Amino acid sequence: MSAPPSLSPEVAGAFQAFPQDVRDRLLNVRALIFETARQTPGVGPLTETLKWGEPAYLTEATRTGTTIRLGAPKSLPGSCAILFNCQTTLIDSFRAHFPDTFSYQGNRAILLDPGAPLPAEPLAICLGMALTYHRNKKQTGTVK
Question: Does residue 80 contact residue 22 with C-beta atoms inside 8 Å?
């Protein structure tokens, strides 16, 4: 896996605000987001920014995907969240493909335990689905 780009001071500050174990896990997820984007044809470069004060990843150049945000839900201290636009069908698709691999929060997020092993392969599939959501929706009329 190639190294992700350096963090901007703003995004680095957002990561620093997370507890150490959550920060470490979310930095692993960040690296996986960039690696998945690199390996997924047509995704192109990612824009890393802050949305609602949380690290966010956009396919701004190609507009193939929907925003992915990383956070730590206040309602679930010690958990990590990978958040997706709740207007998409992504969480339903993730649940259908990986019913027992992840915990989910409504139609909005995959939840991860920072102390458990990272399910990198299934997570990369989910991230790839998010990074190509709009492209796939246009090609098929729906996303599965």
Answer: yes
